[in-house]
Amino acid sequence: MPRRSTIDTFVNEEDRAALEHMMLAGKFTIDELHEWLLERDYEISRSAVGRHSKKVEEIGVHMREAQQMAEALAAEVGPAFRDGETNRMLTQILSSLAFRSMTSAMKDGEDPDARDLSHLAKALKDIAGASKITDERERAIIAAEREKMAGRVGETAKAEGWSEATIQAINEKVLGVVL
Question: Which of 20, 47, 53, 90 is 20 to 30 A from residue 63's alpha carbon, by CA?
Fold first, then answer.
C-alpha cells in the first residue's frame, strides 16, 4: 500500500481545504501553492504539492463530469422532473463515481482510506440534507404563491360581486388554499 501524502498527513484540515480550493481554482502555479504552504510553516516539498495538485485535479474532473451528466439528464427530462428525483439521481451519480474511484484505487494496489470513506459518507449525507431543504423550500414557495393567488382571486371576485362562500370554494378546490 502506498504511503499517505505528506499534505494529507501534516497539513491541518482547514489549510488543506483552502489549498485544495486554490488548486481547483486553477489560478495558482505549483510554486505559488508551495510558497503558500511554506508561509504557514509547513515543510512540504514542491513535488508533494505537485502530486497532491494532480490528485485534486483528477477528483475535480470527476466532479465536473458528474455535474455535466446531471445537468444533461435534468435538461433531457425537463422541468417536470420533481419530487426529489433530481437529487436522488445526483446521489446515485456521486455513489457511482465513488465506487469507480475506489475500485480503480484497489486495482492499483491501494486500499480505500477510512478517512476518504468517511468524507464520502458525509458528502452523501449532506446531499440528502440539501435535497430535503430544497424540497421544503420549494413547497413553501408554492404555498406562498397559492396564498397570494387566492388573495388576488378574492379581490377580483369581490369586485365582481361574488359571495364569500363561492370565493372560499374556488380557493379550496382550485388552489388548495383554506383561508
Answer: 47
